[in-house]
Amino acid sequence: MSVLSALPFLKPIHLKSPRSLPRGQRRHTLPASEFRCLSPEDAVSVFEIEREAFISVSGDCPLHLDEIRHFLNLCPELSLGWFEEGRLVAFIIGSLWDQERLSQAALTLHKPQGTAVHIHVLAVHRTFRQQGKGSILMWRYLQYLRCLPFARRALLMCEDFLVPFYQKCGFEALGPCEVTVGELAFIEMQHSVQGHAFMRRNSGC
Predict the structure, then answer these.
(1) CDD domains given for it (predicted)?
(2) What is the tens place of the pLDDT at every residue in 144-161?
(3) What are the residue ranges of helices labelled H in the chain?
């Protein structure tokens, strides 16, 4: 059994009750809401959401389509998508990093021996924003990381205006990030995910 399928907070949530059907007929429906790791086949949907979310704000995307495919091939277990009736509405993509702080190389590399999960991007489809989905997805992602035996910390970098959002999610600011993208500067933030051994004993991980 995979870690993902063992965790109750990542299993499908059925928010709608199907209408009764005549005996002998089956209803083929998708769960109203479910969370799962992404696959390379999800890359185009991921990029469409990310492009709309970021280009209008910063003029660029944290990950381009080939980079999304790169990480979803190397470490799909460090991604998480929120699907509503089979449609991707929000996602997180991460990779492993093996240094105390992020560097420029962290934008493109996955370090399999690392113990820090670098969260590259969190994005929500425009029609589902202002509903708290970003916070809920991040909470679920952090709970999932606690059940991964190699994960110790989650790291991310963000612009100043996003610092309060991530602080509400439990991240602490480490100061200015070494990484720059064009003229953009970032704050580096960290969240401890230690305690994974306790979570494994108590959640079937």
Answers:
(1) NAT_SF
(2) 999 999 999 999 999 999
(3) 3-6, 43-58, 65-74, 133-145, 163-168, 196-203
